[in-house]
TrEMBL record, chain A:
Source species of the chain: Tribonema minus
SUPFAM superfamilies with a match to the protein in the record: Winged helix' DNA-binding domain
Domain PCI: 209-377
GO CC annotations on file: proteasome complex
Gene3D superfamilies in the cross-refs: 1.25.40.570
Keywords: Proteasome
Gene Ontology BP term (one): proteasome-mediated ubiquitin-dependent protein catabolic process
InterPro entries on file: PCI_dom, Rpn7/CSN1, Rpn7_N, RPN7_PSMD6_C, WH_DNA-bd_sf
UniProt biased composition (Low complexity): 7-16
Protein name per its UniProtKB record: 26S proteasome subunit RPN7-domain-containing protein
Pfam families per UniProt: PCI (PF01399), RPN7 (PF10602), RPN7_PSMD6_C (PF21154)
Segments for region (Disordered): 1-27
Automatic annotation (TrEMBL), chain B:
Pfam families membership: PCI, Rpn3_C, TPR_PSMD3_N
Region (Disordered): 1-24, 106-144, 510-536
Protein name from the UniProt record: Proteasome regulatory subunit C-terminal-domain-containing protein
Coiled-coil parts of chain: none
Low complexity compositional bias, start-end: 106-118
InterPro entries: CSN3 (IPR050756), PCI_dom (IPR000717), PSMD3_C (IPR013586), TPR_PSMD3_N (IPR057985)
Organism domain of life: Eukaryota
Key words of the record: Proteasome
PCI domain location: 278-457
Family as reported in the entry's similarity comment: Belongs to the proteasome subunit S3 family.
GO MF assignments: enzyme regulator activity
Gene Ontology CC annotations of this record: proteasome regulatory particle, lid subcomplex
Length: 405, 536
């Protein structure tokens, strides 16, 4: 696998915070930080500083279309400043005119490479100022252009994915990912391949496929170079949160708790570190406390925000299942003590999850005892066979209609 | 009735789905007499060779004509193919004259690629067949002769077209009734098996005309009489159509008992038409659900959903799905989430999703809110009666959850969980649920040996091993039976060209001779071989 061959360069020198991207030589296009800041502010969780930081980036990059859309979406957080908008639009028009001139000249005097450069510049400009439709169209023009090296074609396809992710435009991301994957399959180098994995993982997080995302992210932990999408810390946050949920305990120990790359960054994410450590060490009280904090973080992350409830629920189920695994029966009160919650709360939680067949247990409310039982594999298989068989039969029936014609 | 909008679409066979290729020039071509003529060619051949499938093909090809034909063209057809002795000829022409010329709808269902390709394929197969529009001059007389032999069929076909087009154009349907009745009377006066499919279409449109005019009950007596006649004549498609129309009418007028009795006293010919069978299943599912026979209704509806056309008849499929969801809920099952996300049905099923979630949570308060909020929708869908029955199921669902989650729980806690009014009420409801088999549990005093006044609790029985019972056997048997049905249907549907077996026979003979030879040789060789062995 090509992942192993790559030096852990990124791990050794984690990228700085995304917010001070302007200082870096390579610029994030489009700037994911502003999308995150705007999300935090519009969801009502941001501070004055966040709003100001967002506005700073918007002004610095002349993101007129993005600004306009943002003001239209939540006028209570971002009041439209007409003068500013006009100034930015004028700037954008100027930049665009420069790009136009460059492209015209390149088409007249220079070769394909220069024309392509101009096209990339145009696409990047649209992406930078947050003009989604124009950016998607400009990138599409590059991808569909004849006479272009595979590498650059993939670059354009990947940039399309970024534009989609920037605007949280799921259909666009899905489509762009599919085309980028096809291109990479046809002849991409390992670097682009690994970057694309991260892109896909972020998309899967948005689509609530945590398992798929976790596997992809885990593959990329050692080879992360994808600073154009997120900082290494953000990446590790996403990777750890998804993997805590999906990895079995033994793998969790090997890959996350003891993983060198993760260990390097985890201290800067104290709540997450506490969450992982307490789950692994069966400190459920600490786990519940850490989860409250992580929940806050999830809610203010634009990828996780709409899945925060789901994530926290799944994490709780995980902890309950792990706790019950060790017991034949346990007094409800003692379990409540271990988790640092009230008996009534725990009772409500357990009964809900047991009824949904997520936990293998039963509660004896009169005796105040939780009794665990082993999952019934044979019956589960039987149910699965019936269910999937019915789906198959439906399809057969559809085919059989041919005979009625 | 919810099937209203769909019936037309459901009539069209699945192959002629409104294809998306209306950009092709063929799609925009106006319907001419030649198109009608081609279909008449099919009908003539069908009559001549007594092959129903050709009639069916003509009916299938009719969808495009029906939706786009201009009254003038149709008038020409009437002039050409309906004999002057026909009692309703003048009336038809008059009605057609009164129709406004339709605006050209470019997007209106274009003739699907598949259908037209099929026709071409047919041409290649037997070029000798008269192809209507392309009849060469020398064959003309022969064609006329054949046409005269199939006169009732052709006439009925044109009449059916007229009815369909006039009905489609909307307008005053009341004025159409005399014409519809006259046509129906004329059609039923024939007794020809080759006419059955066309006659059933006329019957369908006639009944639809009555329904649109708000005089559906006028049709009941004639329909019943027709159904009897069709039974006597072994006219299966006629039986099926008449029965479905009757059921539809009775259900739309809430004559549930009558519909139930009618259905239980009649046999539905299942094999004659998939679409009619589909409708019948839906009506039976509806009757079953209203008659509290949920298991049967569920089976019928699932089968119906399986048999329904895949691409067309969206409203019909949605209606089936709605009913299925409710019947499933009444059965105490929770439908799959994916059901509500099916393409095109999402918006229509949203209120039912809300309902399902309330039932799943066993939350009576939320359930009532959902019902109140969507009352108008449910009434329009005619599912409100069934939904009102669901209220009990909400409590049952809550109880079932409690039963699964708790091995022992005090009745006071049950009351709090299911949000009932009193402990005594909780006890009664639990007792009833146990008796109904909703939950597998027993009620006993908390402390052994305590008096009758002591607190009681609900004890769940251990969940038995389902696999140890014969339930899996029965479940698998049902599915195997279904597969065998499909297989038998496929075998029955195979068609063999006439006299093909003779050719096969000859070929087999020749081949057989060849093989005999080689076998002889083989035997010889073996014998020689053995001889040699023996010599050694």
């Amino acid at each position: 696998m090509d992942v192993e061959q790559q030096p852990a360069a990124a791990a050794a020198a984690p990228a700085p915070e995304a917010e001070d991207d302007e200082d870096k030589p390579t610029e994030q296009v489009p700037d994911m930080a502003v999308a995150q800041l705007a999300f935090v502010v519009t969801s009502g969780r941001g501070t004055q500083d966040d709003a100001k930081a967002a506005m700073d980036i918007i002004t610095a990059k002349n993101m007129a279309p993005f600004y306009k859309a943002l003001c239209a979406k939540s006028p209570q957080h971002f009041a439209l400043d007409d003068a500013l908008l006009q100034r930015m639009e004028a700037e954008n028009a100027k930049t665009l005119a420069e790009i136009d001139a460059a492209q015209e000249m390149a088409e007249k005097d220079s070769g394909d490479v220069e024309v392509l450069d101009a096209m990339f510049a145009r696409a990047a400009h649209y992406a930078r100022i947050g003009d989604r439709d124009a950016a998607l169209a400009a990138h599409k023009a590059i991808v569909e252009r004849a006479k272009i090296s595979t590498g650059r074609r993939i670059d354009a396809a990947m940039a399309t994915v970024r534009v989609g992710l920037f605007h949280s435009d799921m259909p666009a991301v899905k489509e762009a990912l599919a085309s980028a994957k096809k291109l990479v399959e046809a002849g991409g180098d390992w670097d682009r391949r690994n970057r694309l994995k991260v892109y896909e993982a972020f998309y899967l997080v948005l689509a609530r496929d945590m398992k798929g995302a976790a596997a992809l992210l885990l593959e990329c932990v050692a080879t992360f170079t994808c600073t154009e999408l997120c900082s290494y810390e953000e990446f590790i946050f996403v990777a750890v949160v998804t993997n805590v949920l999906c990895l079995p305990r033994t793998d969790l120990k090997k890959k996350i708790v003891d993983g060198p790359e993760v260990l390097g960054v985890l201290p800067s994410l104290p709540h997450l570190q506490a969450l992982v450590a307490s789950l692994y060490n069966c400190d459920y009280r600490g786990f519940m406390a850490a989860m409250v904090e992580v929940n806050e973080q999830l809610l203010s992350d634009r990828y996780f925000a709409q899945h925060a409830r789901y994530m926290v629920k799944e994490l709780r189920i995980l902890a309950y299942a792990q706790y019950l695994e060790a017991y034949r029966s346990v007094v409800l009160a003692s379990m409540a003590r271990a988790f640092g919650v009230g008996v009534d709360f725990l009772d409500a939680e357990l009964s809900r999850f047991i009824a949904a067949a997520r936990l293998n247990a039963q509660i004896d409310k009169v005796g105040g005892v939780v009794e665990t039982n082993r999952p019934d594999k044979k019956n589960a298989q039987y149910q699965a066979a019936i269910k999937q068989g019915d789906l198959l039969l439906n399809k057969i029936q559809k085919l059989a209609r041919v005979t009625d014609v | 009735m919810e099937v209203d909008k769909v019936t037309a679409a459901a009539t069209a066979a699945p192959v002629s789905a409104p294809a998306a290729d209306d950009a092709t020039p063929k799609a925009a071509a106006p319907i001419t007499l030649a198109d009608i003529k081609r279909n008449i060619g099919f009908i003539v051949r069908a009559t001549e060779s007594n092959q129903h499938r050709l009639t069916l093909r003509a009916i299938r090809n009719t969808t495009a004509i029906r939706t786009r034909v201009a009254p003038a063209v149709l008038k020409e057809a009437v002039m050409a193919y309906v004999p002057e002795t026909h009692p309703a000829r003048a009336q038809m022409l008059e009605t057609l004259d009164a129709l406004p010329a339709p605006a050209v709808e470019a997007a209106a269902e274009p003739p699907s690629e598949a259908a037209s390709m099929e026709v071409e394929g047919e041409k290649e197969k037997d070029p000798a067949a008269p192809e209507g529009a392309e009849t060469p001059e020398p064959a003309k007389e022969k064609w006329e002769e054949k046409l005269s032999l199939a006169a009732p069929e052709v006439e009925t076909y044109v009449c059916m077209l007229v009815l369909a087009v006039v009905l489609r154009s909307g307008g005053e349907t009341g004025a159409l009734l005399p014409l519809a009745n006259a046509l129906l009377a004329r059609v039923t006066s024939f007794n020809r098996r080759t006419l059955d499919h066309l006659a059933s279409k006329v019957l369908f449109y006639c009944s639809l005309a009555h329904e649109r005019a708000g005089r559906a009950s006028d049709m009941r007596a004639p329909l019943l009489a027709l159904h009897r006649t069709c039974c006597l004549r072994h006219d299966e498609i006629g039986q099926a159509t008449a029965l479905n129309l009757l059921l539809r009418q009775m259900l739309s007028q809430n004559l549930l008992d009558q519909a139930y009795k009618l259905a239980s006293k009649t046999n539905f010919p299942e094999t004659c038409s998939n679409n009619q069978f589909c409708r019948y299943l839906y009506y039976m599912g509806r009757i079953g659900a209203l008659q509290l026979d949920y298991t049967d209704a569920h089976a019928k509806l699932t089968q119906c959903a399986r048999k329904a056309p895949a691409n067309t008849a969206l409203a019909f499929r949605t209606a089936v799905q709605r009913l299925t969801v409710i019947v499933q809920l009444l059965l105490g099952e929770v439908p799959e989430r994916a059901v509500f996300n099916a393409a095109g049905m999402r918006a229509a099923l949203a209120p039912y999703l809300q309902l399902t979630q309330a039932v799943r949570l066993g939350d009576l308060v939320e359930f009532n809110a959902a019902v109140q909020q969507n009352k108008a929708t449910f009434q329009a869908d005619r599912t409100y009666t069934l939904i009102q029955r669901l209220a009990h199921n909400v409590v049952k669902a809550g109880l079932r959850k409690v039963n699964v989650a708790y091995s022992r729980i005090a009745l006071a806690d049950v009351r709090a969980k299911v949000r009932l009014d009193s402990d005594a009420g909780a006890e009664f409801i639990c007792a009833r649920a146990i008796r109904d088999g909703v939950i597998d549990a027993s009620i006993e005093p908390v402390e052994k040996g305590a008096g009758g006044g002591a607190a009681r609790c609900l004890r769940s029985r251990e969940q038995g091993d389902l696999y140890a019972t014969d339930e899996p056997q029965r479940a698998f048997h049902r599915r195997v039976a279904f597969c065998l049905d499909v297989h038998n249907g496929a075998v029955r549907a195979m068609r063999y060209p006439e006299d093909a077996y003779k050719r096969d026979l000859e070929r087999a003979k020749r081949k057989g001779a060849l093989e005999d030879k080689t076998e002889e040789e083989l035997a010889k060789e073996i014998a020689e071989d053995m001889d040699e062995d023996g010599a050694l």
